[in-house]
Amino acid sequence: MSRSETVQKRRPARLKLSILLPLLLLGALSGVLLARLEDTGAIQIRPGAVVVAASLGLFLQILVHEAGHVLAGLGSGLRLVTMAVGPLRYESGRGLRWRRSPLLGFAYLMPPAGMALPQITASFRRMVMGGPAAGFAFSVLCAGLALASPDHEFRTFWWVTALLGAVINLLSVVPMVGGGLLNDGARYRRLRPGAPQAGAEAALIALIAAARAQRPRDWPAELMAAALQPHDAPTFDASARSLAAAQAIDTGDLERAAELQRQASELIGGLAPALRASFTAEEVYLSALRGQASEARAHFDRLPRNALMSQVMRLRVEAAVLLAEGRRDEAQAALNRARLDLTSPLASRGIEAAWLDELEARLGVPV
Q: Fewer CB within 10 Å, N or C, the chain?
């Protein structure tokens, strides 16, 4: 095995480690603190009670954390697109849904039309820190309830919830980056006043949220121009170019889309395959739209399956490849399956719904 192959095989492990390390720290710190509380007689650790308390307490802490992001964003003039805690998700205009998710929680907000970039940047800055602020405040409240509770079971629940919140939000505010993924502290550092990339970062966050609600050709041109300014981080520069390529595809400028995708591909060459998969999928999609069936098929067959790429994206790309090959019935079957996955928490619904319609129009299916 060559050295390059060895490095390639190790990268997914690094990605998994970057995701698992905060969870391991959370468990270790919570365990140490609970043991100290038991030594003082504040709680009596019973495995069953602790497991129940940890499960419910974790849900409550994530709910409060994400609600903090949402309330801070709404208070700063942003509009809620979607918010999720575990399998429970709220979508603006669609209400509450229950859908299994690989993510513990998330919230996407976008600026209203006409909001100036400096105001957008300040709004996202407050939104980002709203989550940890709410989480720490809730942890203090839980600690107070634990001290006031005469019942050992309730006291255990409130202490466990307080400690989980303290650790979760501490890990959230200490800047950490892994595999191109940022926590709240790292995001705030990029948005902080005076940061050279703050405007580009805010525009990129806004466009990622817009991708869940609007088709690319409707995204504000000024946000796209701002997002394409240097981010001083290859992953974010590549993400901005990938979004610009999506907009170019949606307006019919396939040559510009190809150039933007080429630039994005050069920027992400050192990323783990799991993080490159979505970029590669869009390259395959563009090749299929341009009628390059053999090239699209060759790359699609090598496209890895991973938890970071939505199934609806993969099925949409597969349908485009099948359509380029003239396999219309199989393309329609892939589109039908993709429609069923549009509610996935990983799906950028604004892009996917519009492009599924476009492919069905090519097949002659009334939309």
A: N
